[in-house]
Amino acid sequence: MHHRFGPCAWASPCVRRFSRRLAATRPAQEPLVVESQESKASGGVSASVIFGHGLGDTPSGWLWQCQDLSQQLPWARFILPPAPIRPVSLNGGMPMPAWYDIHGLADRLLERAEGVEDSQATWGDLVEGQASEVGRDRVVLGGFSQGGAMALYTALHLDMLPLVAGVVCMSGYLPNQAAVEAALPPGKRPAALAELPVLLCHGTRDGMVNLDAAKRTRDALEALGLQRVELKEYKGMGHEVCEEELADVTTWLQQVIPRRSR
Fold first, then answer.
1. Where are the domains of the chain?
2. Per residue in 186-209, pLDDT tens?
3. Which of 63, 156, 214, 243 could covalently link to 202 via disulfide, CB atoms 3.0 to 4.6 Å apart?
4. Residue 125 a catalytic site member
5. Distance CA 36, CA 44 (A)
6. Whole-angstrom distance, CA of residue 196 vs CA of residue 191
7. Catalytic-role residue among 39, 70, 239, 248
8. Domain 26-253, what fold?
9. Does residue 57 have an active-site annotation?
10. Catalytic residue among 57, 101, 206, 248
11. Is residue 143 a contact partner of residue 169, using CB atoms and an 8 Å limit?
12. Stretch 135-152: mean pLDDT, rounded?
């Protein structure tokens, strides 16, 4: 069964009501935090998953999915940061929740992604805060669509690599590929880069971020030296998620950040 999340928000009437006078980026609110009842009762949180929503969405759009995941990983805390409200070129310059600007739907890996560094700094602060609490190898970055792109972009920063246990990118891609490659030139790539596990999940009928973007992202990551990149394709799935995908993500998370023995 396929479920749609993160709809094409630039077509939504509620988005059109935003004033064009809101030209500047507005800061986001506080992240949503999801913990299982087991972890709350025992104080047993030993891992964190930072999960970003897609363009035009909010953390609430992913609340129940992360609640379900937390039941399967009761030792993990799920943190859902909100994107700032910013003008989006694809939306005619009107403001909407976005991690960075998008001009079109064509070649995602080549887009300049204006604002991505500001969002990366926000994600980086979350990573550092969680790593100081649960450990340097116990923080996973994940997300859907633009949120998945942010997870990849953040993890591939040199100062983040020692802190991130893995990345799960659902219906996403690697933004600003040229900048990532320039920051990780041959001969200066840390050993942690090769060992970073990455799970890419993508529908074969995705009309927003086509499957080719996921395949090119896999190829780009492997060209950077990553040796643990896995791409899972879901037949007939569009820009959405399905139960099979969520099951695969659950299994992958349980392997990357397993329950710690007491």
1. 26-253
2. 998 999 999 999 999 999 999 999
3. 214
4. no
5. 10
6. 9
7. 239
8. Rossmann fold (3.40.50)
9. no
10. 206
11. yes
12. 97
